Amino acid sequence: MKLPATLTLPSARQTTLALTQALSALPAGGTFYVDASGLADLDTSALAVLMQARREAQARGLAWQLQSAPPKLRQLAALYGVEALLWPPVEPT
Is there a domain that residue 32 lies in? Predict the structure, then answer.
């Protein structure tokens, strides 16, 4: 799923609902890909939304992959200590 250009407090609920819908359409054992390449305007609400989506993906038996995160999202994740949760290390195959 591609994230919207803006993910701030006013849009957090709508984005959470969209992520939940996208998650529910995937079969267990798959991977939930989240494309953050278009994310331009964000605040800490983006972290909360993404963490919730990651928890839901795990609860549904899905792998999680957040792709193309802008620098500001990575900086916020590092500041709050959640980088490893949003970008877990890839296991060697």
Answer: yes
Q: Tens digits of per-residue pLDDT, 44-86? A: 999 999 999 999 999 999 999 999 999 999 999 999 999 998 9
- 67: phi then psi, degrees, rounded to nearest 5: -115, 150
**Nearest by Cα to 7 from 33, 34, 40, 37:** 40
Per the structure, the complete domain to which residue 51 belongs is given by: 6-84
Enumerate residues 6+ apart whose C-beta is below 8 A from 23.
32, 53, 56, 57, 60, 62
The reported pTM is 0.90
CATH number at residue 40: 3.30.750.24
